[in-house]
Protein 1
Amino acid sequence: MKIAEFDLDMKALPKGRERIPCVYYVQLMDPGRPGMPFKIPRIVGTDDRGILEIGATLDFMKAVWDFRGAFHGTRRGDSVGWNLRYTYDRNEWMREAFGAPDGLLGLVRFGYEVPGGDLRKARSGALMGYMSSFGEPPVLQGQSLRHGKETLALGKAEFTRPALLEPRAVKGVPCVYWAHLMDAGDPSRPVPLNRFHGTDPLGRLMGGKTRDLQRRLWEIRSDLATPGRHGEWGLFRTVHGLCGGLRRMCGPLEGLRSRIGFSYMRMGRGMIGRGEVRALDGCIGGFAEMPPVNSQIPGDTRWK
């Protein structure tokens, strides 16, 4: 990977820069040792390269420019630049560890590789390689939600306790829910999961919303059982096959459905969208990222 040399404080795109079609990497450097990458804990192991994003572009310098603009709040459509600032604004640890916004931006580095073939395939291969090592994508490589500043803690009474649910028991329940990885030996106990900042003791794999929790449970079970499914749990199944560390953590695919417990907060149908945002914001505020399965669908909803 070639590291690009330039100053992110630039006021305009540099003139005379060659348009480079490439797969690019966004790295976070250590504020205590700016010449070294920040070591980022993942669900499996630690990313010693400090990768925040793996992307592809026909114009490398424009991708850098868009990242910088999105970090500063302009509508340039770069989801990861926006996600970085969104996380920074909501997470106290990030503000303490990385200082002022410009200080954080000054610790971001960009590297790139020029593949010989199709850029999309090259990016997909790089992402799959990352996930085969760490069991999930880079920290900011996923969906976040635009609205909502309040947070809801899972431990409050509004949420049920994590448990293996029988779908018939939650038929027609509109709610915000969490999916948890439960201990193989004690299915009443979640497995703690490493996150960017700290460990989630509740083992949350995913947070979401649904108008019918029974239907959502069946969908998740079907996605886990059926090869080739799209969506978050379909990709989780694929990553499970790629990453030995994730298989050791979760057990064999055949028994995975019996390892995933759920907790939920019943809400009115008109409130579940806002409730989902608040719940995910709570994870961002606590751990500086969302649960691992939420992060497995590249894209961003803020600009739609």
Protein 2
Amino acid sequence: MRPSALPRSVVLAGCCLLGACATDGLAPAAPVDFTLVPAVREVAVRSAPASAERALRAYALTIHTAGAGPAGRIDVVGRQARLPDGTLATVTGSQAAGAFARSRSLGLCGLVALRLDTVLGDRSYLPGDPAHAGELRFEDGVHAGPATRMSVGELHVEGAPCAPRPSQAFTLELEARSEALGPEAAGGQRGAVVHARYDCLAAPATEPASRLHPALPGEMLRVACQRTATPGAASGHLSYAWIASGAVYLLTAHRGQDVAQTYVYTDVVVEP
């Protein structure tokens, strides 16, 4: 990764924490509701976890990119809310090397994003209420920069990704389309389409969630996923921690062909 490319690409990585965003070959799109494709929503609802005992409401973390020095540090603040249908809404604000970004997403128990908007800006952003993520303004905000939309159009699940058990495997396959938003979109090309597959395996045993952050209660189960994406999209290895009490995944590391990142959680807010 070239140092000159770090500010924009690294801060976008802070908004694409869940590993499912595709940002190559962007093209224009008309505004649409912030919702899931019906077929994808059906799979997501069917796969959603049971109610969390102590839901994770907010977090702060620092993403460190190996070999990038200070320019490779991303500071992220995020808020989460589980919607009535079981999907997870997340909003984030990210900062790296003087660049800023914000995102809103609908996802599958924190493992992958199924609908994601991101935008670059010229100042920091405090995440709004994730339960009303569809009402947040992104592409037409004051001093907003380039914005993109990712939406998963097909989703197939094998196993129980939102109820992992030690030593068990599961698989996700999805098709996602990325498109440009806002006044910078121009031309008539269609958005880029990416096919991605996640082959995941849980660790043999659980461990205390406090090892990830002292405020996290109960147990966690580490899960490793190999992401294979075509054509020409980012593949790589993703490491997660399944937080049992919150029924949610937290990403802990990402290693790709030209990037290696670790995720250090500096603060978490859970329900009392």
Protein 3
Amino acid sequence: MPQLDINLFDDFIFFAFVSLLFGFGDDEVEESVIELNGEVALAQYYIGQRKLYMYESNLITNLITASILTKK
């Protein structure tokens, strides 16, 4: 499992703190905030990986095209 990014961890702490302020002792509020933050973290990770894969596939395509065009 990948390590959490520092920004994601800060967001998690912020949402956990806000849930404690508005719903201290209310387990449903705390659980929903933690669940929501987990979903956001997974979505950000997924989008980041998709962007990386798209960049890598474009890079490979460009390299192959350039190598074909430069052959004499």
